[in-house]
């Protein structure tokens, strides 16, 4: 598996933020936002995350101003790398981050995540536009799912970390867990004006998220394969 991906020129804003040594996504021309738990400045292990900075250079940061709704940074969560831990505490305070930019289809979403116990809701929304378009895990049967009016699901069947990728395009959509892929019609619902990381109405995400990459286009099968294998290698995950 490759240790890095050649993507051409890196935006100057990204170089100024994280430097030249960071492994980078496949392309930047249609990259909407990129989040890596290794880059949460000023937060120690176990600390609350009030802002998760977008590394794409576009400034699509996700924030949470309410202390009791802030997720926490967990060090060494997967392959020695950190993750952001989302949960619902005893006071039923869901942990999530928000962004108010309106998205449109198509979208291709990559997430390195695992579902854990603690959420009694049917769904665990990893990335969601208010329940209109989202990627996450089902609570009851542990499937990964994507939704834009209709569901496409794929069995993950455990609480381990997986590289999930989902293409929402209003027609022949795709969801993939590591090297296993399912296709179908996930619907054509348009995203609304509020995006969430770690939240779906009445069913917040209970788990860990190490990396999230969102593209504002439909990725080719080669691009999806390449970036998936890069993320599997980075996080020490098997296919």
Keyword list:
mainly beta, 2 helices, 8-stranded antiparallel beta sheet, 6-stranded antiparallel beta sheet, 239 residues, disordered N terminus
Protein model, in words:
- It is a single chain.
- With 239 residues, the protein is mainly beta.
- The protein has two helices and 16 strands.
- Strands 1, 4, 5, 7, 12, 13, 14 and 16 form an eight-stranded antiparallel β-sheet that branches.
- The chain starts with 11 loop residues before the first helix and ends in a 5-residue tail after the last helix.
- The model is unreliable at 1-8 (pLDDT under 50).
How would the blueprint of this fold be written?
Layout: H1 12-18, E1 31-36, E2 51-52, E3 62-63, E4 72-78, E5 81-86, E6 97-99, E7 107-115, E8 123-128, E9 134-138, E10 143-147, E11 151-155, E12 162-168, E13 173-177, E14 180-184, E15 195-197, E16 207-215, H2 221-234
Antiparallel strand pairs: 1-16, 2-3, 4-5, 5-16, 6-15, 7-12, 7-16, 8-9, 8-15, 9-10, 10-11, 12-13, 13-14
């Amino acid at each position: 598996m490759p240790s890095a991906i050649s993507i051409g020129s890196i935006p100057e804003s990204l170089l100024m933020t994280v430097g030249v040594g960071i492994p980078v996504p496949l392309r930047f021309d249609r990259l909407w936002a990129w989040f890596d738990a290794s880059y949460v400045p000023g937060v120690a292990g176990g600390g609350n995350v009030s802002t998760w900075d977008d590394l794409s250079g576009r400034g699509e940061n996700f924030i949470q101003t309410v202390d009791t709704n802030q997720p926490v940074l967990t060090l060494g969560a997967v392959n020695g790398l950190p993750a952001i831990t989302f949960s619902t505490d005893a006071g039923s305070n869901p942990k999530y981050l928000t962004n108010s930019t309106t998205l449109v289809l198509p979208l291709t979403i990559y997430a390195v995540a695992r579902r854990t116990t603690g959420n009694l809701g049917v769904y665990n929304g990893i990335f969601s536009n208010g329940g209109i378009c989202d990627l996450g895990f089902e609570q009851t049967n542990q499937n990964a799912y994507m939704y834009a009016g209709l569901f496409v699901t794929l069995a993950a069947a455990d609480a381990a970390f997986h590289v999930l990728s989902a293409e929402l395009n209003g027609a022949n959509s795709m969801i993939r867990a590591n090297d296993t892929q399912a296709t179908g019609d996930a619907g054509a619902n348009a995203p609304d004006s509020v995006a969430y990381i770690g939240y779906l109405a009445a069913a917040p995400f209970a788990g860990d998220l190490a990396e999230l990459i969102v593209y504002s286009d439909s990725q080719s099968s080669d691009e999806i394969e390449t970036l998936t294998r890069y993320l599997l290698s980075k996080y020490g995950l098997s296919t």
